[in-house]
């Protein structure tokens, strides 16, 4: 079976493939939705891109510049592995035909390096430091799509959604925080059609793995630092004292409840949040005792029960970003609902509150790209109101609006509601 992440199968004529995919692209952007002639990863990316961009001639915007860019990338974890990137990929970047690029988890290019002639050519499409190259802002491309699907891949010539990028071919791989698994960004090599071979993909993947291994020895939390990850997870993952722990369900729920009540909670209060009227004080105390043994006595206090020291959590970071009026960054930091399978009343309230705040902030921002990102997630795919707002913001005859209308029709039928399709089509 062919590798779906490679752009060309063995023996494929590159020129013929460019022409074939180019015809499929033009049909797609003019309203023909079938994309049987392209890889599924590319077809899915085209659909996401069509929903986010007003035109296939759009260019990536510049989001960071001058001093702001310098300060941001100097503090970014990937700055620590930049010498490794240069060592492993610098030979390609110096030969005049290739560029090496590093982006953050939002798709913002932090470094773009290569021969001066290649750099000048890339400037015409805004492939420059500070530009945002996630799919929502630049369409299908290797670093942006690698972030979207969280997998190394190649994007070949006319597979790019934006026409101005279609003379390039690129290979990219995502890079993760070794402690938390969170995306840090991606490493990319961009150049000519000859990059569409297994070696370029293997090279960027090996470079990403080497970077993660190196960061694993440099990004370990200090002994007195505790971080908690519960978004999009069935169980909490805790990094404490140089250890990485995965808690069971009840302990995960207790930890979340303690995090949102830094002043502390009594056993009865925690019992009510866990079990409502079916609480058993003895069971709650026993679970807290076990949690203290797991985390260590220096972290969990009693009378009242509360966490000691500095403890950060991913859901509290999303809350902070929302309070600061930064919905785009909040959405980027949100990998999914908080402990989605938990039925503990206190956790259910917390999960619904966070989801509601994020969703409301996205709607209030009025940015169709944020809405499109929400709709592309597993938890947002069935959000009828968001689909209606999204469709209303798109040009009347665009392929994206027609696709949105079809989805609205499906959801209104499922929900037994009056259809929005006629309004969406006009």
TrEMBL record:
Keyword vocabulary terms for this entry: Transcription, Transcription regulation
Keyword Transcription: yes
A family per Pfam: GAF
Gene3D superfamilies: 3.30.450.40, Winged helix-like DNA-binding domain superfamily/Winged helix DNA-binding domain
Span of domain GAF: 116-212
Protein name as annotated: GAF domain-containing protein
Native organism taxonomy: Bacteria, Bacillati, Actinomycetota, Actinomycetes, Micromonosporales
